[in-house]
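Open question from group meeting: does this chain pack into something compact, or does most of it stay loose? Before anyone orders reagents, we agreed to write out a predicted structure and look at it together. Recording both the input and the output here so the notebook holds the full record.
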Amino acid sequence: MQKQYRYILLAGLLVCLFLNGFAQEEKKLLHAGNQAYHGGKIMESASIYKKSLKEKPTYYKANFNLGDALYKTAEMIKSGKMPVPDKRMTADSAANLVFDQAAEQFEVVAKSVNNPDTIQKAWHNFGNAKLQQKNYEEAVRGYKKALRLNPKDEETRYNLAYAQRKLKEQQKNQNKNQDQKKDKQQQEKDKQKVNNPNDKDQQEAQPPAMSKEQAEQMLNALKNSEKKNQNLHEKKGEGQKRNPEKDW
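Structure tokens returned:
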């Protein structure tokens, strides 16, 4: 009986060791990703971080580092240091897509961890990624969240002020473009009115359409009027003098 107990205990220890080794795999991958990142192999590091997340989807260190790797990749694409993955895209459009992916990773971290310092850094990086996309409204949102957690962070405060200024400029230009578009549309409408009278005016100028019955009644009335005029003419006689019509 005791021998059987020892076998069960040994089996339990082996299972624990196996699970422990399996659980550490995401950390090994994270370490390998960090080495690749610091060695300048940015794309490779991003792939390794993704593998780490496959091992443990809630391993938020891998999310954060993946965000860093994607952000760096986007910068390199935008600056021309890395070729555009899809030749049908411009460098800016490709970089914007990667910046968006980086922002997603930082937002996942900011909404999932409990450490205020990590949350603050994640929102700051989120703001940076959105700033690179010229999505100033979202950048402001990220910086504000970061600044609430660390009001003394001067870099975040500076970036927030810059993003707010660029947002006002963007909104001003959008309003100006909308006004210009409205003016152009109104000019086109006015031009059409000059060249083509309004349909409503045309309808008012035209006589109302008559039904078939109304037309027959009117025709009969004209015939009757014509007969009366003929009878009157016969009574007056052909030789009677009539006033001539005016010839303008």
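Observations to bring back to the group:
The chain has ten helices and no strands.
Residues 154-195 form the longest helix (42 residues).
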